[in-house]
Amino acid sequence: MDIVNPALDDYLLAHCTPADEILRDLVEETHERVPDFPTMQITHDEGEFLTMLVRLTGAETAVEVGVFTGYSSVCIARGLPAGGRLIACDVSEEWTSIARRYWQRAGLTDRIELHLAPALETLSGLPQEEFVDFAFIDADKVGYPAYYEALVPRLRPGGLIVLDNVLRAGRVVDPAAQDEADVAIRKINDTVTADARMESVMLPLRDGVTLARKRA
Ligand SMILES: C[S@@+](CC[C@H](N)C(=O)[O-])C[C@H]1O[C@@H](n2cnc3c(N)ncnc32)[C@H](O)[C@@H]1O
User: Fold this and answer.
1) Which UniProt keywords apply (predicted)?
2) Distance (Å, rounded) from C-alpha 39 to C-alpha 202?
3) What is the DSSP letter of 198?
4) What's the confidence (pLDDT) of residue 181?
């Protein structure tokens, strides 16, 4: 199922702040080197959306779960102020080695800390206090419920968690779609909606994006 009418895809991309040369090169290199492209990397309009959310929330400390080759981390880190910090979680040395080169090129290495380990280990090892302003979850779908539960207590009141792929190309409403990832995404979608600690909205941006804000 197309969440957005394909006839509108190019129009949407053409009516958002254009990607700079660094992001365009990153897309091209990812396309060449990673056969799973384009399903893994976020699109440019979503990247702009992340930068804007980070700026609008005034976030200084961010967490990303799922770096891949670095598109979303560049977009998040660019929204942070000087002295800001992005805790970036992934398990792939190969893919994040590409990300690291682009962080360098974009002048963002001072604000991105890469943690190469299963994300739940990294998140569980973070201080158990409310210090995170912004988080983006875009890793293995089965892990979403656990990543969310690890992040909410560490989120500052007013802080934002953004979850990607919450519509799974429409599989969330297909009763025949019952793989582990489908079940996990339905579970996290229901959990977020019912979570009294949070207020949330699900948007039909690309494959579906949920914004969940911790009540202040
Ligand atoms: C969809 S991609 C992320 C795309 C990225 N946000 C971007 O904009 O290009 C998912 C990433 O999650 C990572 N991942 C999968 N399982 C993980 C885990 N248990 N812990 C941390 N990262 C994981 C994969 O290595 C992969 O790089």
Assistant:
1) Methyltransferase, S-adenosyl-L-methionine, Transferase
2) 20
3) E
4) 98
Nearest atom in ligand 1 to 75's CA: 8
- Note the pLDDT of residue 117: 98
pLDDT more than 90, % of the chain: 94
- What pLDDT is recorded for position 35? 79
Atom 27 (ligand 1) nearest CA: 68
Looking only at the bridges linking them, the beta strands covering 112-116 and 85-90 are parallel
* CATH number, residue 47: 3.40.50.150
Q: Which domain holds residue 109?
A: 6-214
Mean pLDDT over 18-33 rounds to 96
Question: Taking CB atoms and a 6 Å cutoff, what residues make up the pocket around ligand 1?
Answer: 40-42, 66-69, 71-72, 89-92, 95, 118-119, 138-140, 143
Residue 157 has which token pair?
A: 């009141």
